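Q:
My hope is that you can spare some time for a protein that puzzles me. I hope you can help me see how the letters and the tokens relate. Thank you; the sequence and its tokens follow:
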Amino acid sequence: MTSRITKAVIPAAGMGTRFLPATKAMPKEMLPVVDKPAIQYVVEEAVAAGLRDVLMITGRNKNALENHFDRVAELEATLEKKGDTDRLEQVNYSSSLADVHYVRQGDPLGLGHAVLRARMHVGKEPFAVLLGDDLIDARDVLLSRMLEEAENRQASVVALLEIDPTLTHMYGIATVETTDHDDVVKITGLVEKPAAENAPSNYAIIGRYVLQPEVFDVLEETEPGKGGEIQLTDALQVLAADESSGGVYGLVFRGRRYDTGDRLDYIKAIVQLACSRDDLGPDLRPWLKSFVAEM
């Protein structure tokens, strides 16, 4: 067994063009999901799984990310003076949530390149990668199970979701074999965004990975692939064929996932999460029913 995995890497260098003009001056990761920016949900998920050492891979105009997880003395003093203890607690919570570090990606060369930028911080340890567009409901277990499987098997583990076969062109798709666990499969091959007729399965990779450090050596040698970018999927394909690095396994997730990278799914995520909250749900749910009935 290796030492406990403690580090999380969150790529956050994308431009968020699908949300323009809202993201013209604000990082897409800071778009609010109810009353918290999307990126905070991701950091909270990492921390809940025991990963308090967080590295964000950022780019230009991402200063708001650093500011959000930093202290704001003037705001704290104002809230304290007003006696607004609830909001003061929320502000302090985000600034003390994790030990957050930042490094810039520089050239926008894809997810694989963004992960490679974490090499100096991660070193020779296994680590987790969490994509900010995918929010996993805090009531459902995913990352902690992935960490458990990665440590037990000494292998890389990715999160898989069974999707409609007509949507394979939107995801990395895995070829799989069964294992001794119902929710764990061994990955024998990966292909990035295949057409439905060429897809080896309907098991799609979603934005959670636990990777062995050997992935960095592979990424160093990975040529640009689909879209002219260095694809993490291509590196995982190499690891899947390399038993010396432990291979690659998939944890099949059957819980609640919210895709905040798509405008319609972003709106759905806000509605679903707000409906599940004790402070908003009781009023929102009946209003939604009446609103839909009147349309």
